[in-house]
Amino acid sequence: MFQDNPLLAQLKQQIQETLPKKEGTIKATDKGFGFLEVDNKTSYFIPPPYMKKCMHGDKVVAIIRTEKEREVAEPEELIEKGLSRFIGRVKLHKGKLNVVPDQPQLKKLSLKAKTQKGLKSDDLKEGDWIVGHLIRHPLTDESGFFVEISQKIADADDKIAPWWVTLAENDLPNSEPKGIDQWQILDDTALERRDISHLPFVTIDGESTKDMDDALYIEKSESGDFKLVVAIADPTAYIIPESEMDKVARERGFTIYLPGRNIPMLPRDLADDLCSLMENELRPALCCSVTIDNAGMIADDIEFFAAQIKSHAKLSYDHVSDFLENGGCDEWQPDADIAKVVNELFEFSKVRANWREQNAVVFPDRPDYRFELSEDNDVIAIHADKRRSANRLVEEAMITANICGGRILKTSFDSGVFNTHAGFKPEKLSEVIALVNPDGKQPFTEESLTDLTGFAELRRWLASQETSYLDNRIRKFQAYSEIGNKPLPHYAMGLDIYATWTSPIRKYGDMINHRLLKAHILAKDPVQAADENIGDELALRRKLHNMAERGVSDWLYTRTLADEPSNKTVFNAEIFDVNRAGMRVRLVENGASAFIPSSLILSEKERLEVNSDEGRVLVDKEVVFQLGDTLEVVLTDVNQETRSIIAKPTVNFTQKQDQ
User: Fold this and answer.
1) Which residues have CB under 8 Å from 292's CB, separation 6+?
2) Is position 214 annotated as part of the catalytic site?
3) Treating both helix axes as pointing N-terminal to C-terminal, what angle do 244-252 and 508-522 enclose, rounded to 10 degrees?
4) How confident is the model over 43-98, as pLDDT tens digits?
5) What is the pTM assigned to this prediction?
6) Distance CA 435, CA 456 (A)
7) Which residue among 211, 246, 272, 322 is the active-site one?
8) Burial degree of 425 (CB within 10 A; 0-12, 13-18, 19+)
């Protein structure tokens, strides 16, 4: 009788309209209730019945009412869904198709679902991985949540799921682009290629590398100067701007590198064959020659030219490093010509690295962590590959070449695809000075740190400190590296210009720079410009690729370390983040990231202080951990469902107090 009473409904509506409303974001808990996060300081409790109308991440307008002497929020209007396109797993509920989103805060949701046309529900089994789209929401449709499945990604027990699921999650391709039947060189006929195939160029890569995109040659003069020639594979000889293949390359942006496999930007028959600088094969290349004096300075005689080159030796990092560091190895010994090139490249790299250490910024050496996989995609081992002589040799050659490329692009066009870094965020400069120059004894000022020279001096000073604590603190005040079409400095490298052109098989921005450099060679207008959108496009693709690489790595780490909590294995770990909830650390032995909750540092909250602003953890007012510290930890939980690792320090602060 009362349900259909229009007067009662009107009265209810009037009451609703008089209640205050707040806009915020839903934060769900695993206990059925949630919170409306209005800002960093204000939140309202959402009881379980109201949470059934929303989900974690939804942006909503909620009515704020008082129930049982407590202010609670009742979501009323949906502003933005927290879930739209998502990755999920099939759950069959009484024979009906449901989907569980693959997100930690949503794993208790079981959403009714249907398949899109062309995908049969009978082909989906319990636990299968899918791409879902939330098409109905209780705040806009009283019938409740409803999902449409657009794609099956992998079977529930498929060991390749980490790769396919992570790529689908970031909306990235999982296969190479389609090529064409017959590739042919389409370069400007006026572009003459020098035949320098007689010069003993060498490639130095990983042993399994197929897409070899750089070859090196060098001559040392009697005065001690070096004439370096860098030859780079030339896919722009085969691909013209705005062609279908060019559009695909631009859309992909980069080759995707994941543990155990890569997804190329270009078709493999181009990247791994026709363009790859294979041993004893004649290949078109874009080359740069330049003199580096015996003090490491880059001269002004930079010359770019097109050429036909031939790699005289396919070398590996380990073999070259063994030769340079130990005089050789049983597996490989170079002939006289190759040995001369390798030795002089090594001399050049030491001279150039020394110049950068004194005048620019050199990043500290860190190992590259590499998963070794079986044919069945099981992890056999995780290797911590340290940077050796050959790695540094190639790095110095590429940095030199990219500085040269940046200089030519700046002077010829004042445009290109540049890697840039703006230094410190302007609003953080006062905090930086308070950290590094609290007593005014250091030469650093806010004004000096806005200059490239002053910034580089600070970075070199930080590298000379006994600990990396200040360096870790200050990195948080730096701007992010960017990609743009303006010739701006790269503060983080301490360089006034930097434009990569040395990996065009793997980076679309390098293809654009190749076309610009060819226009410079021909003294013509370029066939392609670096437009204003390219930097943002490439930055987004790079971000997605990095997320995919981390996603697969996290999955493989939790698979590999699943038994370590019961084994009680002790790991060395480096602290790279401190926040209110605890510390994030990286296991030195294998590179895995783990979280240490505050409660596992010390359960007595009154004795513990976790200071995220200072990057320090204090017990009884004394600093026990800080950013950059290395400590011993054991793993307490490895969750393969959420791909997360929880650790705790081996040191027991409670015992110390008792003693």
Assistant:
1) 225, 226, 228, 298, 299, 348, 351, 352, 400
2) yes
3) 130
4) 999 999 999 999 999 999 999 998 888 899 999 999 999 999 999 999 998 889 99
5) 0.91
6) 17
7) 211
8) middle
